[in-house]
Design brief:
The chain is of the alpha/beta class and about 400 residues long. It is built from 13 helices and 18 strands. Strand 17 and strand 18 form a beta hairpin. Helix 3 packs across helix 4 and helix 11 crosses helix 13.
Length: about 400
Amino acid sequence: MDDGILLAHDDDWPALHRQWRDQQRQAVNGITPEEAREHERKRALTIDPTTLEGRDVPPRRWLVPNLIPRGAVTLLSGDGGVGKSLLAMQLMTAGALAARAEGEQEPEKWLGMKLAPFRSLGFFCEDDAEELHRRQDAINAHYGCRFADLGATRWMERVSEDNVMLQFGYDSSAAPVLRPAFGELAEMVRAHQAELIVIDTLADVFGGNENERGQVRNFIAAIRKLAQINDGAVLLMAHPSQHGIASGSGYSGSTGWNNSVRSRLYLTRPKACEAEDEPDRRELRGMKANYAASGGKFTLRWQAGVFVREADEGWNAVTAIEQRNLAKKFAELVAIATVRGLDLSPNPSTVYAPNVVAALPEAAGLKAKALVKAMHDALREGLVRVVEKGSPSKRRQRVVPGEQAV
């Protein structure tokens, strides 16, 4: 046939008619059928808010309440060896066991939080099968379960594989290219019906410049599609930059990472002065939460091969607000002490800042122990800074108000 439509049996007529319609649209509009369908899809995304009148507001969907939202990417950053992968595997295990026990007992907990059941898939680029086996054995002992109970979990062991999922060229105007690793992961997400997808780590799967915001946004948009396959969530592991570690922000390269994800968590060790006394202690901080209150913190402790949460801390809006207010109060006390010529050290000493400011009349009975945490929060928020003072031979670190730092 001259118009390119192939002859077919009568029962193929609907397909032939669609082909003919697409060809006519192409001839009239000068665009391909694929372009026409994409235009129709985008036009359907336009929302008339008046149509929402009288409709119920949909509830927020969470995989982990207030921490990991569904349909989005959550970034979990932390220095190498701090325990990101272990924490993620504990989460995968809790989801699997909740699925096993559904309707029979209390939902399983992750760091003290009750979870609904979910299926999970880990894309592990740094740990081989033997290391995953050893790590899971300790987790099983913690939860009192067997490997046979983990049917809702799958691991993709990707050490030494080509794991780049989105490749960017040197020409910034060129479109990024999806690599086979993305398709392999997407296929397994569908096959296993995984709701939680753990990708460990960002450095292995991102084929671009982490300081280029456009590339960062394109990458997160692509990875988010994995979360949307089963209305699940992607937990993306990342290593912070040296600046991110020093500042306490946990940033990895461009701030575009923070801006592009809907939730960002930071797993870190305590400040050096505390870490020496408590090497097994960690802090899980909420650095960004588009759908909940940010600023919360869990104090964790590594014991018997797993992380457990200290019982005296919670993760809610009240805790976050209280911590923020106490950090502000600490900054005010630092300003008062500085005006009075008092030395304030960030390290335990005779002029340890929390002890000095706690003795001020304006501290109104605040305890030095509470002000230790407040100091670290204030440093992280930039409310106060640490500078070096004194002669070259006797340099000393001092805590000063934020605006005095140079």
